[in-house]
Amino acid sequence: MATAPPQPKSNNSITKLLTELEQLFCDNFVTYYKSHGYHFNVDGPMFAQDHALLEEIYDFLWAQHDMLGEQIRQMDKPVPCSLKEILSISDIVECDDPRKPSKEMFTWLNKDFDQLIECAQCLYDDADMNSYGGLATLVGDYIRDLSKLNWKVKATIGKSFK
User: Fold this and answer.
1) How far is CA 57 from CA 37, 75, 76, in A?
2) Which of 24, 47, 116, 127 is the most buried (most CB within 10 A)?
3) Over the stretch 59-114, which tens digit does the pLDDT of each residue have?
4) Other beta carbons within 10 Å of 83
5) What domains can be seen in the chain, in order of their start residue?
6) CB atoms within 10 A of CB 123
């Protein structure tokens, strides 16, 4: 039995996807910047491990930032390019003090990752597998890989399973 071809998305659906994608782009960037700042400022008895994990985190977020920006451009929208605009869109709280104990840094990142995953899940749920260069596939991969990093962060802070 043949399936019907996918129906084009309405303008409201496209606008919603773009808004969600832009939100994820901005939230991802603020988390990237925060994790990179933590990387520079981490110290303590677990310095080497914490420093390396923070590098893994910011490298991942930077690569995702590029992918998310390219997705916005593929949908014919300009990408936010000023820090002021990114901060005005993002729901992630920026770093207020780089002199945090490493456990507090990772606790903040765990919270940020939970927000990123929630934002990405909304975008994934609204995306069509057949539209915009496989947006749903890219976001699904983002959720999977970010969830793995979040597991590493939770293990680092000793956060127990629910």
Assistant:
1) 11, 27, 29
2) 116
3) 999 999 999 999 999 999 999 999 999 999 999 999 988 889 999 999 999 999 99
4) 12
5) 24-90+100-156 (1.20.1260.10)
6) 25
Written as six digits, the tokens of 10 are: 């309405």
Q: Decide: 85 and 72 in contact? Cβ < 8 Å.
A: no
129 near 137, Cβ under 8 Å?
yes
Q: Are 71 and 138 in contact (CB under 8 A)?
A: yes
Angle at 83 between CA 80 and CA 149, to 5 degrees: 85
Distance CA(123)–CA(121), nearest Å, equals 5
- Cα–Cα dist 46/35, whole Å: 16
pTM over 0.85: yes
